[in-house]
Amino acid sequence: MDDYLVEISKTYGLVFRLCFWNQVAVFVLDPECIKDVLVTGNHQKSKRFYSRLTSVFGTRFIGQGLETQLDSKHWIMQRIHFDQWFKPSYIRQFASEFNVFADSYTKYLETSADGKTEIHLLHSFNKLTMHLLYKVAFSVDMGPLHGKNHPFVTKMKTAMSGFSALLANPLVDPFKWGFRREVRGAINFIRGSAKQMMIDRKVAMHLDQWFMSKLQREIDENVGAVSGISLNEIEKLSYLDMVLKETLRLYPVGKATFRGTIRDYNLGGHLIPAGTDMMVSFYATSRAGQNIRDPTKFSPERFHIDSSDKFSKYASTPFSAGPHTCIGKKFTEIQIKITISKIMQNFDFELVPGQTCDLADNATLQAKDGVKCFFLF
Question: Model confidence over 222-260: pLDDT tens digits?
């Protein structure tokens, strides 16, 4: 669907409408219009889309949280409450945990780093992230990364499969009782476990090889001999920052966001009637040739401060933009940078031959073949 948006934008421009039976949605890929939709236009979230995310098969899943809250006043209060736990000054205290988990992950990789054993990076990174979040949010150790999956990890995968199925087709086969029952059970387990842990611990208060050598050299020169990587040292890794931004430009985990007009609105010269849903596709916007030169080429240098390849900052917004910017942006960036630095400190690696660049649309964007690698210690 998202690649389709890129293709039709070549014919119809960067703002166009699609009709889904009796429903109409405006798709916005133009950077300046994206600024209007997400930042200056003060549009509310699309009720038609986000109301579908609160429950899965009749069981509360996301509920009325930051992602789905449609009441602007309630959302502002929720955001203010959570913002304090995601400020860089607060996240800095978790630098030791980031390092511990990155070290644990590299030790896990050592067990198979013989240059012959395939390592499923998608699965292992998902597991690493879940273990880290569980530890930071709930102070619970989910066990070694090389061990059997913790029930929370297994249940989350089941819940997300139901969530993805519902997003893809709201009319999921009603006779798949077993699947529905399994998803509902997984969701109840996740929410029940999290609620109990918050009560018990009161955690609401604690809440292409050419560029690889360049990245390796930067890491070697700045943190090559460092065992505990600090955030000050991470900030010196400018090329790693560019690689991360370029990766997320091409492969944003969250593909899109939705807004809705509460009054007739002029968007980039287009009159949008009140009650119209507007979709901002992060994936399609950052791959549109009208926005970025050579959009499918992986080129971290395009994010260099002195790059001649200039483009609007709204042409690549993998964490969204404006007041609804992803609250976990800094958390994610720190986790990725420290983990990648630790891997490149300790290993040489290469992709297993025969894999494709195909993507799997499972609510979030993922590599279909799982990014399997050979690691050598």
Answer: 888 788 898 889 999 999 999 999 999 999 988 899 999
Residue 230 phi/psi, 5-degree rounding, is -90, 165
Please, are residues 233 and 226 in contact by the beta-carbon 8 Å criterion?
Answer: yes
* Positive or negative torsion for Cα 336, 339, 341, 347: negative
Determine the pLDDT at residue 275. Answer: 93
| Matching residue, tokens 């842990």 | 197
d(CA 165, CA 159): 10
**Residue-wise pLDDT tens digits, 304-317:** 999 988 999 999 99
Show Cβ contacts of residue 253 under 8 Å, excluding neighbours closer than 6 positions.
318, 364, 365
Q: Which among 284, 258, 361, 288 is positioned nearest to 23, based on CA atoms?
A: 258
Rounded Cα–Cα distance for residues 272 and 136 (Å): 44
Are 56 and 184 in contact by the 8 Å Cβ rule? The answer is yes
Q: How many CB atoms lie within 10 A of CB 15?
A: 20
- Distance, in Å, from the CA atom of 46 to the CA atom of 111, rounded to the nearest integer, reads 47
Other residues' Cβ atoms within 10 Å of the Cβ of residue 45: 21
Residue 197 has pLDDT above 80, yes or no: no
Q: Are 130 and 152 in contact (CB under 8 A)?
A: yes
Q: pTM for this one?
A: 0.78
How many residues in the chain? 377
Tokens found for residue 345 = 């400190």
- Only one residue has tokens 């040489």, namely 348
| 121-138 vs 151-168: helix crossing angle, rounded to 10 | 110
Distance CA 307, CA 194 (A): 45
